[in-house]
What we know:
By secondary structure, the protein is an alpha+beta fold. The protein contains six helices and ten strands.
Amino acid sequence: MLSTYGLKIVAAILIIVIGRWLAGFIRNGIKKAMTRKNMDATIINFASSVAYALLFAFVIVASLGQLGVETSSIVAILGASALAVGLALQGSLSNLAAGVLLMITRPFKAGDYVQAGGENGFVEAISLLNTTLKSIDNKKIIVPNSTILSAPITNFTAEQIRRVDLKVGVSYKSDLRKVREVLMDEIQKNEKVLKDPAPMVGCWRWPPVPSIWSFAPGQEHPTTGMSTTPSPRTSSSDLTKRE
């Protein structure tokens, strides 16, 4: 009987050794596969660590079963514990799931200026639970990832070219054609304004409210006859290159 029990101990040790090696091999395979897809290092480490932990837990349960330990009760206890922890940390788990999705979909990256979760700022760090922003007035803002995913995300840095709309109020008595000429002249003097697509100036409003000239697409005014409709290739007006 002693020899039989000794064989079980040896078999259990072998299961642990081989299982640990196999879990490590699978973990490294997951890391390499995710690295080839250029995924974020944080999500790579998280996914590989979770996979390794689950596999090693299975190995431990298998080795205990080899020793004759009743594993069904252990599995039931682990399952109940996981359920209790999940219910207690459901808010954190939702942030965790949102963090994984952010790292996979990549709507923004560190250094981008974004509007996310109702906050504006430069992205400093993206973790599994929250995202850290730095506002223009140098405030550190920590936004839960679930809050970010539950609202629209605006990435101001994603595109190299952006449109700038400026509104200029003028008097009722102003010569609108002269106003347009002056504004176009000033726009063309600015070296940062792109020539293609060309900037446009148009009348945005008409009395009884003050006339407002806008560098944005509009429609032909019935009085002046001036059209602000853009060319078919663009609807942008004053486009500038981002520094």
